[in-house]
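Task: complex structure prediction.
Instruction: return structure tokens for all chains below.
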Amino acid sequence: MNPFFIIYHLRKMNTKKIIALITIFIITVLPLSQVQRDCFSAYRVVIDPGHGGVFSKDKKKHGDRYDRLSGNYLSYFAEGANYRRLYERELTYSIAKRVEKLLSYCSENGDFSKFKKILDKYSSGEHKKIIIETKLSRGPSVGFKEAKSMNDPNAPFRLYDYPDGKGAMIKGRISKINEFKPHIVVSIHNAETAPPDYKGMNAVIAPPYKIMEDGLNNMKKGKFISPVSYGRLECWFQGRKGVSKKRAFYEDVALYFTGFGLKKNYSSDSGNFKGYRYNMVSWKYADKGKWYEKAMEHKSGSQYADYKTCKISGKYWERERSKYEEFRRGSSFQNFGGDNLYASNEIIKYILTSLAKKGYKKSDKVAGKPFVSVWSVPLLVNAISAYIEIGYFNRKWDKQVLAKKHDEVAEGIAVGIYSLLAGLKDVKSSKIIRPSGKAIDFEKYKIDNEKTYFDMVVE
Ligand SMILES: [Zn+2]
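Output:
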């Protein structure tokens, strides 16, 4: 349009009309362009209740972790913990549904005033409205009885992609979570027991690349250093029942880099292939084309070789080495566990605060030390991963919480998620379980003005 034409018409209008036009412009056009430019205009959150399916001895048909190389499932389906009539898969879903309901007050058309009333119980500061889009990673779990009459009862609950039997692959839960491009994924679990030094509720985290790389460099030199003599690595070593800290660490390193286990003498166990897990999900970081034909040869010097000669290259490994993964998983002493551990521990503190507000507390209940290993979900979801063991069936207090306190736990999780996204000032709680209330610095995950690391997970 000719600018002189506009000026001619503006001169003909009276002042009132011009003011009205400018007002319309400010109200409609400006905010729209701002929303488009800001990549944090709405946050995406996935609530991921653990498990959902049932165990079956028939691994070939009902397993998980489908391997393209062998055409088999490499693991049995993990049905989760149970105690008498309490099932982890059911109670985690019950809690997740309640979290979803609470966070719906923060959706675009939700009644934020209802959520504000909850926030007021935790903090007297101003609570700004943010938009949260929430998704659950699965529907209600299947029961033993109904599973018996079903052809593939674990289908909606598998973590990894699996074949439909007609030559195509179906997306598993990890792929579906990443498809939503979430900023935060909260995985809810519990266990039957925990070692005595695991007090309270515990985070589940995956080690950062730098730590694993140190381990691989040691292995390549045949130097299996034990944790006691190793400063930076030490806190990442963690044993489990019947497995020493050192052994567990190097098994994790071998599995992470090569997909193979280790023999007793620490040589690569070529008969114990556990799969290339980053290629078992659909995302930008999987190898392309018929990668599995190459991988089958496990050619020495390639990315599919054993730990002695493997060359760590490819899209997934670029991701692993990126600064964003270091933000998420944090290798330094100051930032141990990164945003993943911070988010998990903050949510745990909010859960304990929520329970305490209803008079339900116990002095040794804290955000305890994290379980560290190459767990699938914290490693392969491209989001801040808050993965929490809510409790243990063999502890009385925990069992009560797991059986009966779903509303309280859910409120803690929902408030925790809000706090991680928007921050909460001076949270009212007792000292030992008080959350810091600091929001995660999401700005550092920005790639440019329009995209974040989280947006880039699928092509
Ligand atoms: Zn679990």
